[in-house]
Amino acid sequence: MATQPILRYPHPVLKKLCHRVITIDNAIHDLIRDLLDTMREGPGSVGVAAPQIGVTLRVCVVDVSASRHGKDNNHGQLCMINPEITARSGTAVMREGCMSVPDYTGDVERATEITVRYDEPDGTERIFTATGFEAVAIQHEMDHLDGILFLDRIVSLKTGLFRRKNYR
């Protein structure tokens, strides 16, 4: 398919609650291809969610394997349909950025270990535990499906929001 333009904050679609996917059909497969293409083209991107390209469905992709933060601890390319976090533990504050908020980064507190359940593009259910940077990236993308941006989770607006110097 093709790389899609990323919606930028404050676009109203970014604040919408996304709908569950009822049927995994060719349209969903096309959406996943678009998400993967868009993620690969994004500067330093490790994930993208459907609402970021204007689609209010519960679909997102994550792949931290090429990132220096996730290269040693990851499950590879994840294409998640209707993802749900079923368990979480630990917490850490980590700096996050987002293609939909390209001019800022922020300190966000997230679980350091999550168990996630979702449907694969072929319809099979997958459940696994993610830790570290991969867990953070999954939580970030899943927040998009609920209309939540990392800006909504900044630990301190006074000391936890930073203007990005470079975005490539």
TrEMBL record:
GO molecular function, one term: metal ion binding
Protein name as it appears in the record: Peptide deformylase
Summary of the function given for this chain in its UniProt record: Removes the formyl group from the N-terminal Met of newly synthesized proteins. Requires at least a dipeptide for an efficient rate of reaction. N-terminal L-methionine is a prerequisite for activity but the enzyme has broad specificity at other positions.
Any Pfam family matching the protein: Pep_deformylase
UniProt xrefs under InterPro entries: Peptide_deformylase (IPR023635), Peptide_deformylase_sf (IPR036821)
Binding positions (Fe cation): 98, 140, 144
Species of provenance: Oryzomonas rubra
Catalytic activity as recorded in UniProt: N-terminal N-formyl-L-methionyl-[peptide] + H2O = N-terminal L-methionyl-[peptide] + formate
